[in-house]
């Protein structure tokens, strides 16, 4: 069984086991596994009874492409549930997110939801954040502050701090949906994600960080074997 099939199974199970039958507002995040979340929600016979709030441009397209009703967080500041992906997940369900540069809107939607469910593949599992995700913690920053912040973040213990570039498709830095920059700060393995997030967030010019702690309720992983693994907070369960 392919990893894509496993991703699909994980996403479908996440929706089937967690979506409240009377949900009115659903958050849909980004990532390769969330594609199948939107697909599953789009198959529901009552999809005209609720709206879906996006976390960025990609998830907005997923909502529209699956025939779902698009809503904005400004209109619906309270959500029944949100589904999102992650770049890395530890056993306590601390997350690193922001590889796709949507971290602020993802955190806004997650914080507005009564329940956050993560869907990903087995490569995102780790014992500690930073164990397998080596690109660094994404940090969304106000553009005029980025130079000073590189120094500030280095003083907090970062091995490297890089301004994320647009690559071949764009000359210059990545611009977020909120017109900010992204700094990727490599701290190695992170012993205390909450402490690090707090220290970073207190720096002038930091909008938010890609460390998500004490916010996800459950994570579903598509395994290479085709099985689906579920993690709940500090309890790890496996089901096939």
Automatic annotation (TrEMBL):
- Coiled-coil stretches noted in the UniProt entry, renumbered to this chain: none
Keywords in alphabetical order: Cytoplasm, Isomerase
Q: Which reaction does it catalyse?
A: aldehydo-D-ribose 5-phosphate = D-ribulose 5-phosphate
Q: Which GO terms describe its biological process?
A: D-ribose metabolic process; pentose-phosphate shunt, non-oxidative branch; pyridoxine biosynthetic process
User: Which InterPro entries does UniProt cross-reference here?
Assistant: NagB/RpiA_transferase-like, Ribose5P_isomerase_type_A
Q: Does the keyword Lipid metabolism apply?
A: no
What Pfam family is a match, any one? Rib_5-P_isom_A
- The protein's Enzyme Commission number: 5.3.1.6
Major subcellular site: cytoplasm
Tell me where on the tree of life, at the top rank, the source sits: Eukaryota
Q: Which family does it belong to?
A: Belongs to the ribose 5-phosphate isomerase family.
Matching PANTHER family? RIBOSE-5-PHOSPHATE ISOMERASE
Query: What name does this protein carry?
Result: Ribose-5-phosphate isomerase
